[in-house]
Amino acid sequence: MRTRQSLWTANAGWTGHSDGPADLILAFGGTGPITNAGMWNDLSRRHPGAILLGCSTGGEIHGADVLDESLSVTALGFDRTKLKAAEARVDDAAGSYKAGKEIGQTLAAPDLKTIFLLSDGTRVNGSELIRGMRACTGNDVVITGGLAGDGPRFGTTYVGLNDIPRPGRVAAVGFYGGAIEVGHGSAGGWDVFGPERRITRSKGNVLYELDGKPALDLYKHYLGDDAKGLPGSALLFPLKVFRPSHPAEALTRTIVAIDEEQRAMTFAGDMPEGYSAQLMRGNFDRLVEGAADAAHQAAVPISGDRVAVLVSCIGRKLLLGQRICEEVEAVQDVFGKQTALTGFYSYGEVSPHAATNCAELHNQTMTITVLGESGSA
């Protein structure tokens, strides 16, 4: 496998080199650059025949740097791995499962090994999207990726596959054959606080009641003065959600909207009735340690070039503030500078749990996908 990277910023223009033959171009950018028709078409001209996949972000990861309103581009060339792309439209959360099935049906094949997925970040139920894909691909195919971002605004997000990114899209690339090597990792680093409660009324990704009481009222009670900043302040106080019988398989969920009239909260993924839920809050050092833990999980022995695609949550970026580069540097310390780093800050992360290939939607985590080819020179 061969990797080349380039970066566009408003101050410096283009730096680095990514021209020439490639099989896959990953492009992560702020809303302005990623939706700029001239820049997108320029990428297509510079890499004729390559699959061009990208999305808007809550911040771009390029090497050990974290930027805003830039365009980070990574060109990948493969020697013995076949690629195939697919896309679907998703207008609202109710269409998530169908969109996932469309992607899965297009990519499914006996030699499909892994899928990298990008999705609209505000119109989708990520849990249902992944469930639809797995219905067609099975649970042995590794699915990773993330939900597009719009900075801290939670407005319109954009995904593109071979043409200019637009809202309401899901796009993915499948990797086929025995040569592709993939590692994956996901970790948080958040601390729980407050009592453990039971989800007593919910529908899909909308939470209505905890322990028989309005969920939004309880949430506001524990947030205190921070409740005035909802829904934005919810990024700093996610929920740990798990089946009582399987606490080790806990997921982190972040609020994307609140309903004052219904006293309810909408999340990026499912909030199943009967599950337990507990509030969480961030700790700077633990978040950085979580990023390093994800890197250790994802590390696989690959000779030759490899790329690590980092998808981290916008909530982590807001909490870490000026220390945000520390979590990316912690990943680089694990992999070394010979591994190309790219990625973005998202509205949701897609990765299996560490001990399984079965993908889930995560929030407030650092997820890492490492790609390379076995025996690469």
Tell me what the structure shows.
The longest helix has 15 residues, at 284-298. By secondary structure, the chain is of the alpha+beta class. The protein has two domains: 2-187 and 285-373, no CATH class; 191-281, no CATH class. The radius of gyration is 19 Å and the shape is globular. The relative contact order is 0.18. The strands form four sheets. Strands 14, 15, 16, 17, 18, 19, 20 and 21 form an eight-stranded antiparallel β-sheet that branches. Strands 2-1-7-3-4-11 form a six-stranded mixed β-sheet. 21% of the residues lie in helices and 40% in strands. A hairpin with an 8-residue loop joins strand 17 and strand 18. Helix 3 (96-107) runs parallel beside helix 4 and helix 6 packs parallel to helix 8 (325-335). It contains eight helices and 26 strands. The model has no long low-confidence stretch (mean pLDDT 91). It has helices spanning 31-34, 37-46, 96-107, 126-137, 215-223, 284-298, 314-320, 325-335, and strands spanning 2-9, 13-16, 24-29, 51-56, 60-62, 65-67, 71-77, 82-89, 112-119, 142-147, 159-161, 169-176, 180-187, 191-203, 206-210, 213-214, 239-242, 251-253, 255-259, 264-267, 276-281, 306-313, 340-346, 348-352, 359-362, 366-373.
Short description:
This protein has 377 residues and is an alpha+beta fold.
Helix content: 10-25%
Strand content: 35-45%
**Largest sheet geometry:** 8 strands, antiparallel
Structural class, from secondary structure content? Answer: alpha+beta
Which term fits the overall shape?
globular
Q: How far apart are the termini?
A: 8 Å
Low-confidence stretches: none
| Rg result | 19 Å
Number of domains: 2
